[in-house]
Design brief:
heterodimer, A: mainly alpha, two-stranded antiparallel ribbon, 2% strand, B: mainly alpha, 3 domains, two-stranded antiparallel sheet, 1% strand
């Protein structure tokens, strides 16, 4: 076995150890350790991606001496490696971009714990991406839940405590439903490895036995993970949690953490139940319906907000709706659209949150639109990043977000008529609504009509913030320019994902 | 004077902040008016009828609507809970009988765990072999769940040592709080604890070391040691516990345990995945030294769990270790 094949396992296990060390180091040392380790994980994931692209196939990595139904295993294909590379890169850039805020917002004695949580979160995201075993997924969902709540909480203020409490309650509810689903599925199949469950599920489905438990299990998985990834009717915790956290936390939570759970859901649909079961149980119709509602009502929520970070958080609700709409189209093209959207949103939303953090710096720490008037002039780099992000969110060609809408439209055109009309209408209305709140926001940010309160303030750029924003802009444009290559890689990855 | 030209309207629209503020201004309720006085009732009626419908609706939502929503919310919550409970109960009645011979969980996985655990993992306690060797990766994650929970509690509850002077809190808001006082326990508790604490430690160590050959292991033995530490500080005060288990000791033990655990697991996984021989002597099944890596893993997990339990207690009780 080649050394590069061990990299996924090394990134998972040693991210945990990196978190343990960060907990005993001082803030500065923990920062250095965490950032260097994140760079290493990014390079490792990149080499795994190149390896899988070259070998054109997936491989199974046995976690120990024993083969899968007895031991654990992880499974690495093009799609997993692509997600891992994107997630580790975005995590690194988000922490770099929000570095000043981390040291300002956290208590001095507890700054190191922030980096502990980042490392553990990175480990759990890797594990969720690579795992091939339902119970491993649950263990790392737990780490993910607690670490992401702690990331909100570490900015110490009354508001974040309230937001964290709501987030924790909703998130634990989601975990509980997910665990119930695993327990029941184990009850009727007796397996935890995804391929083995899939075999048993096919038998059970063909025999017609356990049809009610099977429906309820799919429902429990879908609702549990939808609560955790803030699908429309369960999104009420998100604007508070993402709006009140420190800039890096908002970026990581919106860009990556929500997607981790969706990847688990995609695995459950693809590898365990198979698309045909999902379609015949009509789950995909519900997912599409709620995704459709989220696309429109999330944007309406953003339109009503006057607080920039809460507006971005509501925009995340709408963007998660795109992913679920893609999932709910129950076609290959819809799945491709969902995966492309996961990647496109992961490279765009963190950039917007980091830029919002920069605007708050030059506006006396306020985040309402009135105070932020003209902030784009006071912090031109952040302004440029926000403009690129807004263009991407609206879906202007040559930015990352365009490819989502393009692939989603392709998926919609292949679907049957009522769904096609609904999907096309949702894409059109949602794009219009996106433009209606992002364009005024950009105009306000560059407006000259500020009241002069912060007129003299100029952004003082640190290398980390400047580097992160420039890298984010380049990443977004690169994604837009090479989007066809990414769509091809995603399709190749999906082809070997469920096989 | 308001300029109502198209250009001005466009600018107001583009200028997000001011545009939203005008739209969202809520109608003021006549607070100054004594509405309970019957003489004034006609006045409110007139005022209400003069208001536009939208404003009246907004007023209804801000005043009466909240109450209605609150009641509906409770009814809906109870209804949803009952539906979910009855649905889950009815599904459970469809599931195969727990522990039955024809249960799907009785398959080749379970068979190999039962029949080959002694030979393959060197443990007579098949559960230890399962959680620490066969599915060791899951358990590594589970140990870190404890770690991340302890870190979150530290982040939430730890009071900075610089806020204490001679062991007392200096923040006037926190003075007089429960956490400021050492427990003052009575003679019976102290005598009982003197007897029980060493027993708890020894029994905990026994459970950890024999985890490979009898029921128990790191998690249960660690819980016993943690309970001993908590009992010690309840009976004799935190200062007696801090003499041998303070902040630094906690971090040292915890970091050492988790690092050793992760390194052992990484070695085990790497060797196993590549098909190399891992040169670990499995020992004699049934003895204390058996199970290969499971014994050191049990010790590491045990101390980690003990640290976490005591950490939870100490942080909730006095905001620090």
């Amino acid at each position: 076995m080649e050394l590069v094949q061990s990299f996924p396992f090394i990134t998972i296990v040693f991210s945990l150890t990196c978190g343990v060390f960060c907990a005993v180091l001082r803030g500065n040392r923990a920062r250095t350790l965490c950032l260097s380790w994140l760079t290493v994980t990014f390079l490792m994931s990149l080499s795994v991606l190149l390896y899988t692209l070259k070998s054109d196939g997936y491989y199974i990595y046995r976690m120990g001496k024993w083969n899968a139904p007895w031991g654990n295993e992880i499974r690495v294909g093009v799609l997993e490696a692509l997600m891992a590379t994107a997630f580790s890169g975005v995590m690194l850039l988000s922490v770099l971009g929000g570095l000043n805020h981390i040291f300002e917002d956290c208590e001095a004695e507890k700054t190191n714990l922030y980096f502990t949580m980042i490392s553990l979160l990175m480990s759990s995201l890797f594990a969720l991406i690579y795992t091939n075993d339902l119970f491993t997924a649950y263990v790392f969902v737990e780490i993910n839940t607690i670490a992401s709540c702690a990331l909100v909480m570490l900015k110490s203020s009354g508001k974040t405590l309230v937001a964290t409490t709501r987030y924790l309650i909703m998130s634990l509810l989601g975990s509980g439903l997910f665990l119930l689903g695993i327990v029941m599925l184990y009850g009727i199949t007796g397996e935890l490895l995804m391929e083995s469950i899939a075999e048993k599920v096919r038998e059970i489905f063909a025999s017609g036995e356990y049809s009610l438990p099977l429906t309820v299990i799919i429902g429990l998985f879908s609702v549990g993970l939808a609560v955790k990834s803030a699908l429309f009717p369960f999104h009420s915790w998100l604007p508070d949690a993402h709006g009140s956290a420190t800039a890096a936390s908002s970026a990581v939570l919106s860009g990556l953490v929500l997607k981790g759970y969706i990847i688990v859901l995609i695995k459950i649909f693809y590898r365990i139940f198979g698309l045909s079961v999902i379609v015949s149980e009509r789950v995909s119709n519900f997912l599409f319906l709620f995704g459709f509602l989220a696309m429109i009502l999330g944007s309406v929520g953003a339109l009503r907000e006057r607080d920039l970070k809460r507006m971005l958080a509501y925009s995340s609700v709408a963007q998660v709706g795109y992913i679920y709409a893609g999932l709910g189209m129950h076609s290959q093209a819809g799945m491709v659209a969902a995966c492309v959207q996961i990647l496109a949103h992961a490279v765009t939303k963190p950039m917007l949150f980091i830029a919002a953090g920069g605007f708050m710096d030059v506006s006396g720490g306020n985040k309402d639109m009135a105070s932020l008037t003209g902030a784009g002039r006071r912090d031109p780099l952040g302004g440029a990043a926000f403009t690129v992000g807004a263009m991407s969110m609206i879906g202007i060609p040559s930015f990352a977000g365009f490819m989502t809408k393009f692939t989603l439209t392709q998926g919609a055109l292949q679907a049957h008529t009522p769904l096609m009309i609904m999907a096309l209408a949702a894409i059109a209305v949602s794009t219009l609504l996106n433009a209606l709140y992002y364009i005024p926001a950009v105009f306000t940010l560059f407006s000259r009509r500020d009241d002069g309160k912060y007129a003299g303030v100029r952004a003082r750029y640190t290398p980390s913030y400047a580097g992160a924003t420039v890298a984010f802009i380049l990443l977004n444009l690169g994604f837009g320019v090479f989007s066809q290559a990414i769509v091809d890689a995603v399709s190749r990855g999906l082809a070997m994902f469920g096989a | 004077m308001k300029n109502n030209s198209f250009r001005e309207k466009l600018r107001r629209f583009v200028d997000y902040g001011s545009f939203r503020e005008e739209e969202l201004k809520l109608p003021r309720s006549p607070e100054t008016l004594d509405t309970d006085n019957p003489e004034n009732r006609w006045l409110t009626t007139v005022q209400n009828s003069e208001k536009p419908v939208r404003a009246r609706l907004a007023k209804w939502f801000t005043h009466r609507g909240v109450q209605v929503f609150d009641n509906l919310y409770r009814v809906a919550a109870v209804f949803i809970c009952l539906t979910l409970i009855s649905l889950l109960l009815s599904v459970v009645s469809f599931l195969p009988r727990f522990g039955g011979a024809d249960n799907p969980a009785v398959n080749e996985v379970e068979e190999r765990y039962v029949s080959k655990a002694i030979e393959e993992t060197g443990t007579t306690n098949a559960v230890a072999g399962m959680i620490s060797a066969y599915r060791g990766f899951d358990t590594l994650g589970e140990a870190h769940v404890l770690f991340v929970a302890a870190c979150s509690v530290i982040a939430l509850l730890r009071v900075d040592p610089s806020e204490r002077k001679h062991g007392r809190l200096v923040d006037p808001e926190l003075l007089g709080e429960d956490m400021d006082y050492e427990p003052n326990s009575d003679l019976i508790l102290r005598k009982a604890a003197k007897l029980l604490v060493p027993l708890a430690f020894i029994f905990g160590l026994y459970v950890i070391l024999n985890g490979t050959s009898s029921p128990g292991g790191g998690f249960s033995g660690g819980a016993l040691i943690g309970a001993g530490l908590i009992l010690n500080s309840v009976a004799f005060g935190f200062q007696r516990t801090e003499r041998f288990f303070g902040d630094e000791m906690y971090h040292l033990v915890k970091t050492a345990c988790l690092t050793v655990y992760a390194l052992l697991m990484a070695y085990f996984i790497y060797m196993g995945a590549n098909g190399f021989d891992d040169h670990v002597w499995l020992g004699v099944p049934g003895n204390i030294i058996s199970g290969g890596l499971i014994l050191p893993i049990n010790v590491a997990v045990g101390f980690e769990v003990a640290c976490t339990m005591y950490c939870f207690y100490a942080l909730f009780r006095k905001g620090g270790l």
